[in-house]
Design a protein that fits this description.
Length: 95
Amino acid sequence: MVVVIWEAEFSTENAAAGSEAMRRIWVDMRLFDGYLDHEFLVDVTDPGHITVVSHWQSKEAADRIRDVYASHANALEATRLASQPRRRCVYSPIS
């Protein structure tokens, strides 16, 4: 299993629309092989700062979906609304 963390920053004007685009992405992720679950987090002091912590069966599964989904309308919308490029990190749990 791997943990994939996505972080996005949206301006105040785009915070609601950006959050909605990110939510749609993660609803879609439930349809893909290798997806296990996720937690959607919004910064209480900056609602335009969103972090998604997700769990995947393998890095290969997470990478495959990232590559396939990059051109999807929801991903393109989140990228367009973001004030800086979204960031992705892949971790291996220690315990």
